[in-house]
Amino acid sequence: MKLLHQGKVRDVYELDAQRLLIVATDRLSAYDVIFPDPIPGKGVILTALTRWWLPQLTDIVATHWDGGGDAECRVLAADPDTPLDPVYRADLPQRAMIVERCQVVPFECVVRGYAYGSYLKSHPDVAPMTPFDPPLFTPSTKATEGHDETIPFEQMQAALGPLADELRDKALALFQFAAARCAAAGIVLVDTKFEFGHAADGTLRLVDECFTPDSSRFILQADVERGVYDSFDKQIVRDYVDRVGWDHTPPAPQLPPDIIAKTRERYATIQQRLTGDSI
Ligand SMILES: Nc1ncnc2c1ncn2[C@@H]1O[C@H](COP(=O)(O)OP(=O)(O)OP(=O)(O)O)[C@@H](O)[C@H]1O
Ligand SMILES: [Mg+2]
Asked: Which of 11, 30, 77, 104 is the most exposed place for a label (fewest CB within 10 A)?
């Protein structure tokens, strides 16, 4: 097994020609810079959510996970020859997934149910949380370095042909499904990002994580009703670093313990409300 890719959050290992071991670490990135302090347990929360969502989505699109791999994760964790980050060995089965290796489509499929985040920056005349009915598909480039950039759908179509329409339709259907599921848990799904890929046989797969606080913006329904738009993700960290005047260039500042604890709590709240399990 070899380390193929160390992303901002995940360590991706090649298990064999067809399969990857994706380990969700506790790393936190904001403004595309990784912070020196991990958020303890964050990777376990991300993995629990992705494992909970993926099997529910297969009527819409096939995914890169077949629901298995736990026993193999336990074997890998116990084998001292497995080249794992020692910090993540003990709870590997809770933070890792064995998935089908895919050729990832080099666009991020972003869907927005409400105006927030980068949409507001590029549309300063639009009020925060203005609903989009139907939701908007706002794809972006998948930058290997630096920031992803929102692009017109036509640019994605020019690059991918009819696949662009297929990905847009799948992304919108996934969003609608998840938004209803979130609503039932008292959560508003504001926006989200997906990645798709092609399996070795050429068929389409939903890959990566999905509907986690790293890939999505969630706000509690009760908060929305009273006009409070606090999103349950790393917004606390963004607010903190903006307060202390960090200019978003590396290195990222250290985080005070209360900011770390509150961030963890926010990730855990979403996971508990949706899955019903506390970690
Ligand atoms: N089934 C899969 N097959 C191949 N690659 C995958 C699969 N699922 C996820 N990935 C890739 O694994 C990586 C996950 O790591 P992470 O999310 O930490 O990366 P990232 O910081 O977002 O960096 P990147 O710029 O590479 O996306 C992503 O590059 C994602 O595209
Ligand atoms: Mg990613």
From this structure: 104
Q: In this structure, which residue's CA is closest to atom 16 in ligand 1?
A: 7
Kindly report the backbone phi and psi dihedral angles of residue 111, in degrees, each rounded to the nearest multiple of 5, phi listed first.
-125, 135
How far apart, in whole angstroms, are the C-alpha atoms of residue 86 and residue 72? Answer: 18
Query: Looking at ligand 1, which atom is closest to the CA of residue 144?
Result: 25
- From 123, 135, 245, 238, select the one nearest 193 (Cα to Cα): 135
- Residue 197 near ligand 1, beta carbon < 6 Å: yes
Whether ligand 1 lies within 6 angstroms of the CB of 7 is answered as yes
Residue 26 Cβ inside 6 Å of ligand 1? The answer reads no
pLDDT in tens, the chain (279 residues): 999 999 999 999 999 999 999 999 999 999 999 999 999 999 999 999 999 999 999 999 999 999 999 999 999 999 999 999 999 999 999 999 999 999 999 999 999 999 999 999 999 999 999 999 999 999 999 977 777 899 999 999 999 999 999 999 999 999 999 999 999 999 999 999 999 999 999 999 999 999 999 999 999 999 999 999 999 999 999 999 999 999 999 999 999 999 999 999 999 999 999 999 887
**Single pTM value for the model:** 0.96
| CATH 3.30.200.20, the chain: domain bounds | 2-100
CA 152, CA 157: separation in Å to the nearest integer?
A: 9
Region(s) of the chain under CATH 3.30.470.20: 103-275
Top-level class of domain 2-100: alpha beta
Ligand 1 touching residue 43 (CB < 6 A): no
Q: In whole angstroms, what is the distance from residue 233 CA to residue 216 CA? A: 8
Q: How far is the CA of 60 from the centre of ligand 1 (A)?
A: 21
CA 187 to ligand 2 center in whole angstroms: 23
Tell me, which fold does domain 103-275 have in CATH? D-amino Acid Aminotransferase; Chain A, domain 1 (3.30.470)
